[in-house]
Amino acid sequence: AVWLTGVQDAVMLQECVFFLARSETIRFRTLQCFMLNGVIFLGSILLFEFAVGPALAVLRRLVREDEVWATEFVGALLSALYKALWIYPIYCISFVLNTVMYQQIADSALALRKSGAPNATPALERLINEAFRVLLNLVYILEMDLLYYVPWVGPLLYFVHSCWLASMYCFEYRWVHLRWTSSERLEYFERHWLYFAGFGFPVSVVSFLCPRFIDAGVFALLFPLCILTATVAEPREMRLAPRPIRRLPVFIAVQGTSCLILRFFEVRLGGAS
Predict the structure, then answer these.
(1) Residues 181, 220, 137, 107: what is their CA dihedral angle, to the nearest 10 degrees?
(2) pTM, rounded to two decimals
C-alpha cells in the first residue's frame, strides 16, 4: 500500500494543472522544457532515426554492390557528425538550461504552497552540505552502474535504484528549500524507502523502456511534472511493517565510500600543508 501510494502521488496530474493555472512562471518554464527537450532534442534524434537513416538505407539498396561500401561509409560519417556537432552539444546545453528552469519551477511551486523556509543556514555550512550532496549523488550513480552487472538480479537492482534516484531528484528541491542537511535528507529517505521506490517508478519505467539518449530526453521532458507532484506529496512510512525493514539503509555504502573519499583528500591536503 505504501509503494502504491508513492505511485499514485507521482501521477497526481490534477495538482500539475493547479500549478500551471496559478503561475505564469511555471507555465512558461514548463513550455520551454517541452520545446527544448521534446521538440529540439528528441525531435532531432527522431528525425535522424526515422528520416535520415531510412533514406540512407534506401540509397544503399539503389547503388551497385561494389559501391555499397561508399554509401555505408557516408552513412556512418553523417551519423558521427550529426551526433558530434548537433546531438551532443544540444544535450550539454539542455542539461544546463534544464537545471535553471527546474529550479524556477520548484521555487514558484513552493511559493504557491506557501512552504516557508526556516531560519537561514550559514553560507559555509550550506556550501559544505551541497558539496557533500553532489559527492553522494556521484557515488550513488557509480554504485547503480556496478549493481547492473550483478548476476541474475543486476538489472532489477539497477531499476530499483533508478526509482530511488528519480525520487531523490524530485524531492531535493523541497528539502533544499527547507534547508535540511544531507544527513537529514538521507535519514528521511531511508525511513520512507518503499514510498520513494513507488514515487520514482512511473518516470523510471518510461525512461527504462526508451533507447539511449531518448531516455534522457523523456526524463527531462517529464521531470517538471515530477517536481510539481513532489511539492504536494506526503511520503508515508511503513508503520505496520516489522521494525528491521521500517528503515532500509539504502545509502550505507554510499555514505561510507563518500566519507572515505573525504578523509583521503583531507589527509592529502593536511600533508601538503
Answers:
(1) -10
(2) 0.86
Amino acid (1-letter code) at residue 169: Y
Give the angle subtended at the CA of 237 by the CAs of 234 and 242, to the nearest 5°. 170
For residue 244, the tally of other CB atoms under 10 A from its CB is 7
Q: How far apart are CA 31 and CA 210, in angstroms?
A: 22
Burial of 270 (0-12, 13-18, 19+ CB in 10 A): exposed
Q: In this predicted model, what pLDDT tens digit does every residue of 4-37 receive, in sequence order? A: 999 999 999 898 999 999 999 999 999 999 999 9
Half-sphere exposure of 33 (CA within 13 A, CB side): 27
